[in-house]
Amino acid sequence: MMAALRSDPESGVMRGELEHNASLASLTSWRVGGPARQLYRPADREDLVAFVQQLPIGEPIFWLGLGSNVLIRDGGFPGTVIQARGVLDQLDIHTRQVDGEVTVGAGVACAQVARAAVRAGLAGAAFLAGIPGTLGGALAMNAGAHGHSIWEFVQSVEVLTRAGELQVYEPEDFEVAYRSVALRDEVALQSAIGFLSARLIFMQGHDDPTMRALLDHRAKTQPIGQATAGSTFRNPPGDHAGRLIEACGMKGVCVGDACISDKHANFIVNRGHASASDIERLMERAQRCVYDAFGVQLEPEVIVIGDVLAAAEVSP
User: Which architecture, in CATH terms, is 227-305?
Assistant: First the structure.
């Protein structure tokens, strides 16, 4: 059931779209997952802040952008999902003598940031073209590719708290590591629920290799155009998850309709009718195989959220 709530922002009534028991599978790149207790699509930035302010303090909240890098279990998410895609869409570029400042909303696709920066004559952003998500998701996981990661270029970020307050932080306020980002202050960490925007700095110049070369390489080596969530596991120190999975013979292995890609072993593909449980069991199987063969414990790069269906709820 969807309710479109529209009124003057000063009235205090939400103006976005609120849907109860909302299906999420169509909103994720894996095309799997159960429903959210409620899904909110804010009308704009101000409406998002007002909506968060009226949520119960302990309400579970999950931000959903393009739906990549996430596995929502078949039992769904017992809280509120906020879909920021198409809402936090600010993208402004101010070029200077030697560099350029890019102000980006969290709902902007990484590929859009890359294209805009390249058109403005800025170097360093081309790697973002290969990240299948929004800036907000990239900030949350320190997304990267081709030797670069997003936090190399961050000057400041704007964070929304559970109280609906806006806080501005600089990189030194965060503990940033490979595919990991967390506020150093524990109180601030517990209060923060998501990134709203970021200021990025890129130098004037041209990327080498070019964005086109990077995209061509991605198309040749990854299962582009298929239902995946991006890289499934983090690369362990000094190695690659895909190499380890392939080396223990799991390329092409399936659980139900969830299969390890023949093209790149660190990608799991939904061939059409996979469940979230199929994908999670295949992930666990790959982890066991790699650990048994090499003594390496692979850590998921995808975020796994939600409830597992009880046995009685699973269709025969």
Answer: Alpha-Beta Complex (3.90)
